[in-house]
Amino acid sequence: MRASALTPPSTTAAIWLARWTFSAAAVSSLFVFGLGIALAGFEAAYRDRIFPGVSSWGIDLSGMTRAAAAEALTHAFTYPQSGQITLRDGERTWVATPKELGIAFDIESTVAAAYAVGRRGDIVADLGDQFDTWYAGHPISPIVLYDYARADNYLRLIAAQIDTPTTEAGITVFNGEVSVAPAVVGRHLDVPATIHAIQSPISILSSAEVPLVVSEETPAVLDATAQGEIARKILSAPLTLTIPDPREGEPSGFTLDVPTLQSMLVFRRVEDGPNLAHYEVGLSPEALHAFLDPLAPTLAKEPANARFIYNEDTKQLELYKPSSKGRALAVDASIREINLQVTRGEHVFPLVFDVTPPTVEDNATAEGLGIADLLVSQSTYFAGSGKERVNNITVGAGQFLGVLIAPGETFSFNKYLGDVSLDTGFAEALIIYAGRTIKGVGGGICQVSTTAFRAAFYAGFPIVERHSHAYRVQWYERGFGPGLDATVFAPVADFKFKNDMNTWVLMEAYVYPGRGEIEFKLYGAPDGRKVEIGRPQISNVIPHEPDVFVEDPEVEPGKVKQVEWAADGSDVSVSRTVTSVSGEVLYEDNIRTHYLPWQAEYHVALGELPTPTP
Q1: Which of 35, 187, 313, 394 lies 20 to 30 angstroms, CA to CA, from 301?
Q2: In the chain, which residues have pLDDT < 70?
Q3: Rounded CA separation 475/20 (Å)
Q4: Are residues 349 and 384 in the same domain?
């Protein structure tokens, strides 16, 4: 019997199962082996190539070497060169390629990214990536580079065409012509902001129109048309500044011609608020000051009280000369008025003055001023004086007729005498100047001042200032003697006295040429004061030198002209005591004078000097 026939059924099944199990394991091993062989072959086939399913910019890069992929993408990805970015500023546009704005295709990095798909270095992960890429595909975005500096440079070129400085409206004047320049709105291309705006379309590799980011600055002065018109009006004609109520000898006004006005014209910028301003047109205050300041002293006038003559019969005042108001040129107010009027187109208008009314008006009365009677009358004599000296005495005395001296006021002879010149009626006559007797305008005025001094001295008023002559002069000694003369020479020598009464004092001066006399009268309210004046006390007499003869071509032959008179030098003292009605001593003073010795001087014709006495 064969063994197989003797094998139990269970044994047979077991043998069969064992055979089958061996066969399945063998097949599985063979499959795995075969799969490994296949994968190894796949990897070997794509060792230097891009795995299937990888693409970029729509180009299938499967199986391409990196060089082939680079070439394919270079031909396909033309966005940096073919794309268009339109930059707009209003109606103006600039078209730039992305490349010009700094966009560059990084081909090497893009191909490297494509080649790296499925090659992470992890076998299981790499197989999964390779399968997914094959099955579903794997697009690679092109890698682009952005050169900010290139974009900045490109936009700077555009900025040079757009950028405009902010310019305010302006006014210019040349040769009397006024020109107005319009304002210009400032514009500035904001390069960083524009680059930021460009990045949006570039980031999606798209062409687009991008508004340029431009900032604008409105000028503070937008328009100067109105101010230009004002300037034209100012320069349309000369400017005349008039003097209200001009006095005798004064000009009626002053004229500024157009070239002068142009030199004075100014445009002052005035702030109205944040970034808002306007121009004010006018004439320069400094230039107007330079013009008006020198005029102010010449136009100034002190207020003048009315002058009166006291009627001793009626005890009333009779108006001799009307009062006048004082005035002072108000320079600052005039400048303000000038600039107000010229902007209105006016070319003739008055200067502004500060006016001071007189203290004593024309309707003043003796009772109101406290003038009740004659206080004193004093005379000096000038008989034998030449006609020029008599003229000067007459003209000088006329300045003091009707003068009022207020209570407590210090009277100044020079103030009322005024300007001594040929223009004011004075003539040339002999005067004492710098230690010599010479010919000068106003010779003889000291006869007036001496007489005024004696009136104040005899009336008992305090003498504030008095100057004597250098030597004794015969005119002033008649009827009294030396020591009571008073010389004046503005502005260094003046005669002054103070009205120490509680009422006004009226001064009157009269000249009687026929008898060679000048008289000063002082009227007021007698207060009972008494004045005692001593006789001149002469001491320290110094004899004068011998006479001197001098050749003078102006002297006719055979004639002799005396120009100096001999006088001994000496010291003279005149005492005065003033007492009140009650006997109280008000003043006790001495008028002291030092006279120099003076020799006589005679002028003779040329060659006629006398032979000296042995």
Answers
A1: 394
A2: 1-36, 38, 429-442, 612-614
A3: 181
A4: no
